Amino acid sequence: MAKRTERSDAVRNRLAVLAAADRLFAESPHGAAVSMDEIAEAAGVGKGTLFRRFGDRAGLVRAVFEARTEWLRDAVASGPDPLGPKTPPRQRIVAIMQAIVRVKLDNGRLARALEDAPAGRADGTLFESEPYRWIHGVLVDAIGRASPRLNAAWAAHALLATARADLLDHLTSVDGMTDEQLLENVRILAELVLDEG
User: Structurally, how many domains does the chain consist of?
Assistant: First the structure.
């Protein structure tokens, strides 16, 4: 069966919506707390277009976050060292975890909106979402090769828990940690976990 191509007006509308949502989310003092009406108006499309394309507000937030972080997924999937698949496992795990933390720090409000989405979301819990399952699988593979004694699935969940947006927000805004301190502590923790395995 031939792959269905997207109509040019649909592509244009999708890009306009993503650009408008990205700008409005960045400008809003409450991050992703922007209404679908505001986004539709800024994009010059009808509100129905948003719902047909993205399903709901959470779907739109997810699409904006994924557009902002597509470079990371590409780098992990097929990029060069230190994120790419040919990197030695221990080095790759540290690099991936630091990159995830950096992305969450740079996109904190959107990341929190995604992580705080209700349990009834279309793709299940955060742990069942496709992006989480994918990066978890990458880490499981790398951890299994770096530290065979560890339960790789558990260790991957444990490392990813250190990159939760709400935790990072607390550590920077309440505990006063700098971004550099967070990144260094993520490196140390990942290396300790791997050493114990």
Answer: 2
